[in-house]
């Protein structure tokens, strides 16, 4: 005897019926480079950006305006660059903040200048900022981020641990004054340096008065599959130790399994792309953040300089991609944790939906 799986029927039909215009997430990769940072654990390490001139703040404003009443969450990040190395970062952020888009910024923090900070608090709607520190001392910071030597004193000062802390504290003060609901977070990826007893506690003491949350995790593998050799040994034991140490601190979140994506090969189609797109620094539109790089130009859906974003969202090319096999046609099994979770879950509903033994 079989019974009808109402949940799988509902979730699969819901995924298939989603309006391709109704984005849930728009990710922007506006960065030019990473300044003096040469992080060996960078997820897009060694992968070239797509060629083309950079989008201007005016062009970002046109993208925001083109979405009309739609308000997807706008993530400003970068798979291989620092987003705030864009030549007009404040204008780019204002294009979305002033229209009330939910905006999330992921940054190293060295370019959190006064005009950028003002742009982040200028407008209604949700805004969250995550500053990636990964260290609690200047020496560890330079080593973990492989900060390059330079004769340019301004660049050296800008990339310093002390400067990043100053920027974070300035944003914290502005948040309290102008937008208390802005969520300010610090991110710490744990390398060998931070694994030493007391190092994480010192970093937490430096940060906790100025941030809403400190996220602690171990870096996941890079996009190219290589694992850096500075990751700590006995990771599960280390994370368990941290979890016990900070169990009473509500501002510290220890992510226990973020470094171990399952690399699930059971799902064959990308469902997550139905609700998101990523725009690279030159206006190229891709189905997800992981593929907005030169090795994946075959997955380029269009360019906002040539076609308005709403038209790209409903284009035949994008909708055809919904049905492509990830391994044989898209050739991009590099999902991040979020997309892998979504794809695994929804494809599981598909398997039940198509099971010939299901009853009514």
From TrEMBL:
The keyword Transferase does not apply. Keywords: Iron, Iron-sulfur, Metal-binding, S-adenosyl-L-methionine. Residues 270-336 form the 4Fe4S-binding SPASM domain. The keyword Iron applies. CDD domains: SPASM (cd21109). SUPFAM superfamilies: Radical SAM enzymes. It holds the Pfam family SPASM. It comes from mine drainage metagenome. GO terms for molecular function: catalytic activity; iron-sulfur cluster binding; metal ion binding. Residues 37-174 form the Radical SAM core domain. InterPro entries: 4Fe4S-binding_SPASM_dom (IPR023885), Aldolase_TIM (IPR013785), Radical_SAM_PqqE_MftC-like (IPR050377), rSAM (IPR007197), rSAM_sf (IPR058240). This is Uncharacterized protein.
């Amino acid at each position: 005897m079989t019974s009808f799986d109402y949940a799988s029927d509902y979730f699969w039909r819901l995924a298939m019926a989603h309006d391709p215009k109704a984005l849930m997430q728009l990710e922007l990769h506006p960065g030019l480079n990473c300044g003096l940072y040469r992080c060996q654990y960078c997820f897009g390490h060694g992968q070239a950006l797509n060629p083309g001139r950079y989008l201007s703040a005016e062009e970002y404003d046109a993208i925001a305006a083109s979405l009309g009443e739609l308000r997807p969450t706008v993530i400003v990040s970068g798979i291989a660059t620092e987003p705030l190395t864009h030549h007009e970062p404040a204008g780019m952020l204002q294009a979305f903040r002033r229209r009330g888009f939910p905006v999330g910024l992921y940054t190293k923090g060295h370019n959190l200048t006064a005009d950028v900070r003002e742009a982040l608090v200028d407008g209604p709607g949700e805004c969250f900022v995550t500053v990636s520190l990964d260290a609690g001392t200047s020496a560890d910071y330079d080593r973990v981020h492989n900060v390059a030597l330079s004769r340019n004193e301004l660049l050296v000062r800008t990339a310093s641990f002390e400067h990043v802390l100053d920027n974070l504290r300035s944003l914290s003060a502005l948040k309290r004054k102008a937008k208390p609901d802005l969520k300010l977070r610090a991110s710490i990826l744990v390398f060998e340096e931070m694994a030493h007893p007391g190092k994480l506690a010192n970093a937490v003491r430096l940060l906790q008065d100025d941030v809403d949350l400190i996220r602690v995790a171990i870096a996941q593998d890079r996009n190219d599959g290589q694992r850096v050799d500075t990751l700590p040994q006995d990771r599960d034991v280390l994370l368990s130790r941290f979890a016990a140490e900070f169990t009473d601190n509500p501002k510290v979140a220890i992510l226990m399994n973020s470094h171990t994506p399952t690399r699930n090969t059971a799902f064959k189609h990308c469902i997550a792309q139905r609700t998101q797109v990523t725009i690279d620094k030159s206006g190229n539109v891709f189905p997800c953040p992981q593929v907005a790089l030169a090795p994946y130009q075959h997955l380029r859906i269009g360019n906002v300089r040539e076609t308005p974003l709403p038209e790209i969202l409903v284009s035949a090319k994008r909708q055809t991609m919904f049905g492509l096999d990830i391994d044989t046609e898209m050739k991009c099994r590099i999902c991040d944790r979020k997309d892998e979770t979504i794809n695994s879950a929804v494809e599981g509903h598909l398997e039940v939906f198509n099971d010939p033994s299901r009853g009514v």
